[in-house]
Amino acid sequence: MKDDINTSESKQWAGVKSLLGDERLTLGPYFTYIARKSPRRLLHLFSYYKFAAKMIGPGKRVLEVGSSEGFGSIVLAEAASSMLAIDLDADAIAVAKASVESEKLQFRVADVLTDPLGTFDAAVSLDVIEHIFQEHEDAFVDAIARSLEPHGILILGTPNVNADQYASAVSREGHVNLFSAERLRELGLRHFHNVFSFSANDEMVHTGFSPLAHYLLAVCVDPRRTKAS
Amino acid sequence: MSDVRSKEPQYQQAFDAYAARGPFSLGPMLSDTWRQDPRRLTFVLARYKFVSKMLAGKKSVLEIGSGDGFGMQVVLQTVERAHGIDFDQAFVDYGNRVAAAEGFAASFSVHDITEGPPAGTFDAAYSLDVIEHVEPAREGLFLTNIAAALTADGVCIIGTPNITSAPYASPQSQEGHINLKSAETLRSSLEAVFRHVFLFSMNDEVLHTGYFPMAHYLLALCVDPRRP
Description:
Radius of gyration of chain B: 18 Å
Strand content of chain B: 25-35%
Distance between the termini of chain B: 58 Å
Number of strands of chain B: 8
Strand order of the largest sheet of chain A: 3-2-1-4-5-8-6-7
Strand content of chain A: 15-25%
Structural class of chain B: alpha/beta
Shape of chain A: globular
Number of helices of chain B: 8
Order of helices and strands of chain A: HHHEHEHEEHEHHEEE
Structural class of chain A: alpha/beta
Strand order of the largest sheet of chain B: 3-2-1-4-5-8-6-7
Number of helices of chain A: 8
Oligomer: heterodimer
Largest sheet of chain A: 8 strands, mixed
Helix content of chain A: 25-40%
């Protein structure tokens, strides 16, 4: 403080600063890598979370499947009444617990296919389904659908298969099951009565020509629950 | 076959079709829009385009307040068939005439939705620029009668100007708008009738989910009618 340049503006700013508190968030390796390698990607990623949060609306019990270190989860938790975020990656969950966990936003190392998680109004899974082998994709979506209320909603987000040619080597390494808009919609419709398809390019979510969408978002409503559990 | 020869062969088809079928009419509503404020045509049709994207694959769709039926043609690109209701016989006659002449999978009938649900069951419905003209006391009937025409997991899209845009509306628009909504009041009206309400905004032709008080137009995607 004593080293601040002393002007009437700096005094005014010091007043603003005093209102902000002195807390810090630390990024884990996943988000640090993105921030260092391609910080713009954080904007895309957060915009998908923001879209999901807007679709879910306020006051809902939310499940996130594949939260990684949880920095996107905080966007979903803002309007939620409660939220559970899970990931198979124990290191990522440890980062989330140490940095952004709160009474409202809980993190757990868990597998949606096998672990009992409770019942939720809405679920979100961004950038996960493309890492699930195609032979497991139906079991994955079905397991999420089963954790929802009878009229629950699921928001799935994944890169468009057509954008794969432009993806980084690290991204491509993990993408074992990329989707077109049609295939994502068909997957959703096998497990939900209604699927609404959106596209995103940069931070802009839209309903334009899907083959040129960089990212795909499917809002799935009303689990079918036709198969026996 | 047209007497006109296009310089580039890919355009000949357009001249031939024009010679064979004649010009396509915008109809009374959008012809008037085009002459008075051409830009308005693009954002009005963008609303129908959003409907066509959201309702893609639906089999039977109801439009409430279909007017002369022009906007429905955009929706017909992605749905199997559509039926429009309007309380104005002149619009209904025009819509049926065009649908027959052009071979659209569309029909129109005179019906006031506040008097009761229309005949038939639909897997989706939409109503653009209508709810703001409905007397507030009859809005409940308007919505529950739409919901009653839908299947159990039916979808309904309601579009209406944001109340915050009213100060910039033309005098004739302002005249008829007796039931304008904010995002909050639209949501609460619709949540009484549907389990899910997903709210979108439009400024110009751009659909988004941004801060609602600055939205020009509101679009609510409603799913699952609540049964009484």
